[in-house]
Write a structure and sequence with these properties.
Layout lengths: L13 H18 L15 E7 L7 H9 L2 E7 L3 H10 L8 E6 L3 H6 L27 E13 H6 L21 E4 L5 H14 L4 H10 L3 E3 L2 H8 L11 E5 L7 E2 L2 E2 L1 E3 L5 E9 L6 H10 L3 H10 L3 E2 L8 H6 L11 H19 L2
Parallel strand pairs: 1-2, 1-3, 5-6, 5-7
Antiparallel strand pairs: 3-11, 4-7, 4-10, 4-11, 4-12, 8-9
Length: about 350
């Protein structure tokens, strides 16, 4: 399976607006009657920047070269999954671990905003089409990528078992015909598992989601601790000939299960929960100007075009071309199940505790 990332060789243009703004501020200071000293016009922000992120992300060699060309010396620190990342940022708020954080998603983002982890940064590089993805309209977190957490099915398994109906909706998972054929992930230990838990709350409400989970338990659902265990061990289409043809994964996953010109798996768009990942300048950064420049670089055409290969996510810039496999086999769902981020932040722990009592107790 090969997917070619389309990256232009042009330097990222996002810093141009920063440089122009700095120049205007400097010139204004020179011309103001109140100015007592002469200010030298500033160039683009430069210097050392520590990027704090989750374990699923690393800068590519080409990105590192791009950033060095922009005068940014970026050091990457990985802190676990998205939930661990936010927890560490909050715990170390008074002694920041870095200058920029990337990988905070809409499940945990409201908590980070409430804790005051991030400084305001209205990126001039944010496309108009992506502004609706901001959390509560805040400029403290800049949307960088997006994707869908969805159920996936093994098409070949169902072709070989025509007596078993292919599920299409959440309700279908409770069909006795799918007994012992579904694997999901624990929301207490898995980010996609938490996204799917939120989707069930969004679909059935706080009064009904546990009844839905009870119906899945009665139908023999398997709960794995991690996405990798669910997908690669339990899922029949994940490469290890697992016993279950329905798995919780991502809308983009079928773009990576190619056999020639076709995919062997499909996602179910009616089951999708939209995940958005953000970057932000950490409050108390030692180099906030350069930190803001790094956030802006993440919105450049080069960085956005690499997202399908680096984090298996979609760019927030709709003008950036996707790999052919993404376009054909893994498009974003036209409509997703939603939960208000503030409601999610307030109730997440209680939902997980109730789920654990219901499913594992």
């Amino acid at each position: 399976m090969t997917i070619t990332t389309r990256r232009s060789k042009a330097a990222a243009g996002a810093l141009a607006a920063i440089a122009a703004t700095s120049l205007l501020v400097a010139c204004s200071a020179e011309q103001s009657p109140a100015a007592t000293t002469t200010t030298t016009p500033a160039g683009p922000p430069t210097g050392k920047v520590t990027l704090v992120t989750h374990d699923s992300f690393e800068l590519t060699d080409e990105q590192k070269a791009d950033l060095k060309g922009l005068g940014l010396d970026v050091e990457v620190t990985q802190l676990g999954d998205g939930g661990t990342l936010v927890n560490q940022l909050i715990l170390t708020k008074d002694a920041p671990l870095g200058d920029v954080a990337y990988g905070i998603d809409n499940i945990f983002g409201a908590r980070a905003l409430d804790a005051g982890v991030f400084a305001e940064h209205a990126s001039p590089a944010l496309p108009d089409a992506a502004k609706a993805l901001r959390l509560d309209g805040s400029d403290a977190l800049t949307p960088v990528d997006q994707g869908d957490v969805c159920l996936n099915v093994d098409d070949r398994w169902f072709e070989a078992h025509p007596d078993v109906p292919v599920p299409a909706t959440l309700d279908d998972l409770a069909d006795p015909a799918l007994k012992d054929l579904v694997v999901l992930t624990n929301p207490a230990t898995s980010t996609p598992g938490l996204a799917f838990l939120a989707a069930t709350v969004g679909a059935y409400g706080e009064d009904g989601y546990l009844d839905y989970w009870k119906s899945l338990k009665d139908n023999g659902v398997k709960i794995s601790d991690s996405w990798s265990d669910a997908y690669y061990v339990e899922f029949s289409g994940g490469g290890e000939d697992g016993p279950r043809p329905v798995v919780l994964s991502y809308g983009s996953s079928p773009a990576y299960t190619l056999d020639g010109d076709e995919s062997t798996t499909s996602s179910l768009p009616a089951t999708c929960f939209r995940q958005v990942e953000y970057a932000g300048v950490i409050a108390g950064s030692d180099n906030p100007a350069a930190a803001g420049a790094l956030v802006d670089y993440m919105l450049s055409a080069d960085f956005q075009a690499a997202l399908p290969d680096t984090v298996y996510m979609y760019p927030v810039d709709p003008a950036v071309a996707l790999p052919d496999a993404f376009e054909k086999f893994g498009p974003l769902a036209e409509k997703t199940i939603t939960v208000d981020p503030a409601t999610l932040a307030t109730n997440r722990d209680a939902w997980i505790e109730s789920w654990t009592d219901t499913m594992l107790g």
